[in-house]
Amino acid sequence: MAPEVSENVDIAIVGGGLVGSSLACALERSGLSVALIEAAETPEAPSGFDQRKLALAQRSIDALGRLGVLPLLQAPPTPIRRIHVSRAGDFGRALLDAAEFGHPAFGAVVLAQDLGLALAKRVQSLKRTRRFCPARVTACRFDTDGAHLSLDLPDGARILSARLVVAADGTDSFIRHAAGIATRSHDYGQTLFVCSLRAEKANDGTAYERFSGQGPVALLPMAEGAYGAICGVASADAPGIAALEDADYAAYFQNRFGWRVGKIQATGKRTFYPLKQVLAERLHAPHAVLMGNAAQTIHPIGAQGFNLGFRDALSLAGLVLNDGLNPGTAEAYAASRQEDRARTLAFSDGLARLTANPGLPMHLLRSLALGALGAAPDMAAGLVSGAMGYRGATRFEEAL
Ligand SMILES: Cc1cc2nc3c(=O)[nH]c(=O)nc-3n(C[C@H](O)[C@H](O)[C@H](O)COP(=O)(O)OP(=O)(O)OC[C@H]3O[C@@H](n4cnc5c(N)ncnc54)[C@H](O)[C@@H]3O)c2cc1C
Question: Is residue 216 lining ligand 1, measured as CB closer than 6 Å?
Answer without folding.
Answer: no
